[in-house]
Design a protein that fits this description.
Trna Endonuclease, Chain: A, domain 1, Arc Repressor Mutant, subunit A, 15 helices, 14% strand
Length: 328
């Protein structure tokens, strides 16, 4: 409304504003402060579900666990967030059913244009692309390209993802099961749908938090180079979670995220270096460094090898603050 009705070309204030600022959701360090009674892993889980909107963050209580909050506020028909995305999007969109189908497809892992079009069933790729353009204008969806693409707008490797964490959660675990939830089976949905897939869902947010952490390090001057792009990389079934690139300095930082109950060992570093060779990092950027992010820390063997290997080790708790916790 602000962009079109107040500041748009036909609007009365067009060309008269003296400044503008798009207020973004809170990042993980700020969102974590809403849950001071939670351990840092629980804070990451809450952020993965709710994102950075203060209204959503205020809904959950850190006196009960994350699943109790999900059950009460999101899966229950009387919960304050049960209908939130539907109300939010129906106010903005003229054909909400088609957009909902697209968002559900993305939330379920169909991230390429042709996959989304086939799953959503709203027309061919051209029609789906128009819907996706509108969702991008609304900052609901974003198109990601591999960080090594120097001209991202021309890339044919784009993947789509839902920007807001809560919308991502709702379209993954609420929208597909509304009929079941309306039968009073919220407990069954929680136990049979949410719990089994929860760690995988949180791991995606953990990767996002890791990339944000690298960006914060860059802003604080804690990286040995000035990155031009921070993102990920994927091709031919291979994937790298964190990539920070400086073409001008010939430098790249490559990282892996492990949201697992097991401590990260040397084998993860070996595999990351293998991926770097597939990626062709050394051929394009003479200076390559590595970073590993872990939910459950690192094995003594990896900690001992990290300094000589030039590998940065970051435990999950570091993502919620500027200081590196468990960093070598």
């Amino acid at each position: 409304m602000m962009e079109k009705e107040v500041l748009g070309y036909q609007a009365p204030l067009y060309g008269r504003r003296t400044g503008s600022c798009l207020l973004l959701p809170l990042g993980l360090p700020a969102a974590a402060t809403f849950f001071s009674a939670y351990f840092f892993l629980q804070q990451i889980e809450a952020w993965a579900v709710l994102g950075g909107m203060p209204y959503y963050l205020r809904t959950f209580s850190d006196t009960t666990d994350i699943f109790a909050n999900i059950r009460e506020h999101i899966l229950d028909e009387k919960g304050s967030l049960y209908n939130e995305p539907q109300l939010l999007l129906m106010e903005e969109l003229r054909e909400p059913r088609n957009y909902f189908s697209i968002l559900r497809a993305i939330a379920q892992g169909r991230t390429r244009l042709n996959e989304i079009a086939q799953s959503a069933g709203v027309g061919d790729g051209r029609a789906t692309a128009r819907y996706l353009d509108i969702l991008q204008e609304m900052h609901v969806v974003k198109r990601m390209v591999p960080a090594n693409e120097s001209r991202p707008e021309k890339s044919k490797k784009g993947l789509y993802e839902i920007v807001d964490h809560f919308l991502r959660f709702w379209f993954r675990f609420v929208h597909p099961y509304r009929g079941t939830l309306e039968l009073g089976l919220a407990d069954a949905v929680l136990e049979q749908r949410v719990r089994p897939a929860f760690d995988q869902f949180v791991s995606h947010a953990f990767e996002e938090g890791a990339r944000e952490h690298v960006a914060r390090l860059a802003r604080a001057g804690e990286l040995p180079f000035l990155p031009e792009r921070i993102g990920g990389w994927w091709e031919r079934g291979e994937e790298i979670d964190v990539v920070a690139v400086s073409d001008a300095e010939g430098t790249i930082l490559i990282g892996e995220c492990q949201w697992s109950v097991k401590a990260v060992g040397l084998e993860v570093l070996v595999d990351l270096k293998r991926k770097a060779q597939v990626f062709g990092a050394q051929e394009r950027w003479p200076r390559v460094s590595y970073v590993l992010f872990a939910k459950a820390g690192f094995t003594p063997e990896l900690r001992a090898a990290a300094p000589s290997e030039g590998v940065r080790l970051v435990e999950a708790c570091a993502l919620k603050r500027m200081e590196d916790c468990g960093l070598q």
